[in-house]
Amino acid sequence: MIDVLVIGGGNAALCAALMAREAGASVLLVEAAPKEWRGGNSQHTRNLRCMHDGPQDVLVDSYPEEEFWQDLLKVTGGQTNEHLARLVIRASSSCRDWMRKHGVRFQPPLSGALHVARTNAFFMGGGKALVNAYYRSAEKLGVQIRYETPISELVLEDGKFIAARTESGELIHAKACVLAAGGFESNREWLREAWGVNERGEWPADNFLIRGTRFNQGVLLKFMMKAGADIIGDPSQGHCVAIDARAPLYDGGICTRIDCVSLGVVVNRDGERFYDEGEDFWPKRYAIWGRLVAQQPGQIGYSIIDRKVVGRFMPPVFPGVKADSLPELAEKLGLPVENFMQTLSSYNAAVRPGTFNHTVLDDCRTEGLTPPKTHWAQTIDTPPFYGYALRPGITFTYLGLKVDETAAVRFNDVPSPNLFVAGEMMAGNVLGKGYTAGVGMSIGTAFGRIAGTRAAAAARGAEQSRSA
């Protein structure tokens, strides 16, 4: 019998498998995707948010624990477990050497990644390179890997893991198990159930695009809920970003994100603004915009800029719609010209002069406008003008299994002796809502490593019990 079974194939699963193997356990990792699509959402990541008290290799200045915690507290609105959040924050300061040992390489932040040189360590080659490095290391260490092996259910006895059943009916027994199979963001029916019908009679989830893998259907999460595992989180909350409306249904990844939102204005299909585009630095606010767009008519928005800000943001994969005048841009985007021009005229008239600097919270703002634009407000008056249609792009969901610092799955607040969870399946303990760049990888890395270590120890305990 295998010591530790790891279910999932992304960052959290790989961290668990590597740690369990390093602890001396025999490990089998099962991934639902075929080999060419392995890695879950982790293949689309690019960095890890890291606490550090001084300059460290690819990180500049310092990013102390308290500042990291305050950043997380702000974006979650207090919907976070402080004990577990601080555990993740502290773990983020010491994991990079271990990651390097397993082949992960880091680079200085990309030139277009504003404001994160101090807080985030970037992977050389992005998340795909990180995933491939971990798989190579796992294979070298003797971790068994099976692709195209989706798990449909677990065999449990009083909270104890006995075996996992594949979709084909095969039973895989193990002394301990780590669940790291992702959320339910690719399950359209579950998303519809979570978001429901809005006041306009629309099903918002029908217009969501999935930024990551199509394989995160939430099968095991739903099974664990029915099995009585303790649950945390709101099913409608998740990492939801405004992305290019032309993005593919799945696996568009980072390149489909529209990063000029804070440098212009955003209007809905009626040509009206609906939120402060300059509220805070983009890496701290980008993950609220998917939800904001989801609340608009037709679940669509339009980011509008002029020539002055071209080159100041990471260019998306698709070019914007271009026009020599604002009325022409409205027509090309299919927006009501009169409403659109009224919105832009009111905005331009409300802009107060300041010293524009998109690397700081500058003094360029609007006055007497609702909603305001707090920073980086410049008149939009210099052709050519550009517009990008936006759709909600869901990355991962926050409904998950409740845990403590041991990463054990809990039933009626009693921890399982040999079943653990990591990654998206428990991220809601730390992320009740909101997001800040790189923290998903911090959570997956911290709890993946804890879960793998604990699973190996549980397997050793089971072996000792049998031999006693």
From TrEMBL:
Residues 3-430 form the FAD-dependent oxidoreductase 2 FAD-binding domain. Its cofactor is FAD. The keyword Oxidoreductase applies. Pfam families: FAD_binding_2. InterPro entries: CobZ (IPR012831), FAD-dep_OxRdtase_2_FAD-bd (IPR003953), FAD-oxidoreductase_2 (IPR050315), FAD/NAD-bd_sf (IPR036188), Succ_DH/fumarate_Rdtase_cat_sf (IPR027477). The keyword GTP-binding does not apply. Keywords: FAD, Flavoprotein, Oxidoreductase. It comes from the Bacteria. This is FAD-dependent tricarballylate dehydrogenase TcuA.
